[in-house]
């Protein structure tokens, strides 16, 4: 099979593995394939419920899709592996798009609402780098929407970004007030005029059931074992209950006060809920 046919075959297999957009570029004597897994930001959760970030769901779906693609390529005798290097966003620019002031990669169709997975192959690729047609308008809306003031004129200060802190074992107290969903933060993306995706389906969980540990297995299946850890999910659920003043959750929060992993977040949340 010619290299050109191999490139087309890899793209076809990637689409079959669940990626609606696949782009390739040369990388030394081989090539990189960028697998885009888009998602829509979740609509607001109903009272008493909390949303799970759709980004983390898309990311896990993309990860599993990439594994499926690698298995299919192996069967065809095409040597390929997951790209584990740094600078994926910068590399993705070779296929179009831009990097916004919030440091996120913007795909020309999906905006920043996409997870990116990269596969490296030995297949020679002649596809020319794409000319990006969309650009960051430098409007500053993302910086204005950031609750942690993490977007500075010179770029993102990762150490202040809620996304970087929200998945820690114990979220620092100064960041707890910014938690508005399970996992991550997408406020700068929602404010960006270059993101045109409408808010869509939400995976919502009732807070009291969540605090009892009822949905951990389901959440783990959606976002994977790393992010679906009990201590991350229950800690954030308790903090969220406090942030929205959901007093009916107080007994469930109090049941976690002595918990080795989420006790600190539960004590913080219980104090706030008692005053609500
Ligand atoms: S993810 Fe959240 S905290 Fe981080 S830059 Fe965007 S809005 Fe700010
Ligand atoms: S909100 Fe404005 S400044 Fe921020 S990434 Fe979007 S276009 Fe760029």
UniProtKB/TrEMBL annotation:
The keyword 4Fe-4S applies. PROSITE patterns: 4FE4S_FER_1 (PS00198), 4FE4S_FER_2 (PS51379). GO terms for molecular function: 4 iron, 4 sulfur cluster binding; epoxyqueuosine reductase activity; metal ion binding. Coiled coil: none annotated. InterPro entries: 4Fe4S_Fe-S-bd, 4Fe4S_Fe_S_CS, QueG. Keywords: 4Fe-4S, Iron, Iron-sulfur, Metal-binding. The keyword 4Fe-4S applies. GO terms for biological process: tRNA queuosine(34) biosynthetic process. Residues 127-156 form the 4Fe-4S ferredoxin-type domain. SUPFAM superfamilies: 4Fe-4S ferredoxins. This is 4Fe-4S double cluster binding domain-containing protein.
């Amino acid at each position: 099979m010619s290299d050109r046919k191999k490139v087309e075959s890899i793209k076809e297999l990637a689409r079959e593995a669940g990626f609606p957009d696949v782009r390739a570029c040369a990388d030394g004597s081989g090539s990189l394939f960028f697998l885009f897994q888009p998602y829509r930001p979740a609509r607001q959760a109903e009272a008493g419920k909390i949303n799970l970030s759709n980004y983390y769901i898309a990311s896990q779906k993309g990860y599993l899709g990439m594994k499926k693609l690698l298995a299919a390529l192996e069967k065809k005798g095409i040597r390929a592996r997951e790209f584990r290097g740094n600078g994926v966003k910068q590399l993705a620019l070779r296929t179009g798009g831009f990097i916004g002031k919030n440091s996120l990669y913007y795909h020309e169709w999906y905006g920043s609402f996409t997870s990116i997975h990269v596969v490296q192959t030995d297949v020679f690729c002649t596809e020319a780098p794409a000319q990006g047609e969309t650009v960051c308008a430098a409007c500053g809306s993302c910086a204005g929407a950031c609750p942690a003031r993490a977007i500075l004129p010179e770029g993102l200060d990762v150490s202040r970004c809620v996304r970087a802190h929200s998945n820690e074992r114990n979220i620092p107290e100064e960041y707890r007030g910014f938690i508005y969903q399970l996992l991550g933060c997408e406020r700068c993306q929602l404010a960006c005029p270059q993101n045109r995706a409408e808010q869509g389906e939400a995976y919502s969980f009732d807070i009291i059931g969540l605090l009892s540990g009822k949905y951990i297995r389901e959440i783990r299946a959606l976002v994977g074992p790393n992010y679906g850890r009990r201590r991350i999910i229950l800690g954030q659920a308790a903090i969220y209950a406090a942030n929205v003043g959901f007093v009916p959750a107080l007994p469930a929060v109090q049941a976690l006060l002595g918990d080795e992993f989420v006790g600190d977040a539960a004590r913080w949340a219980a104090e706030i809920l008692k005053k609500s």
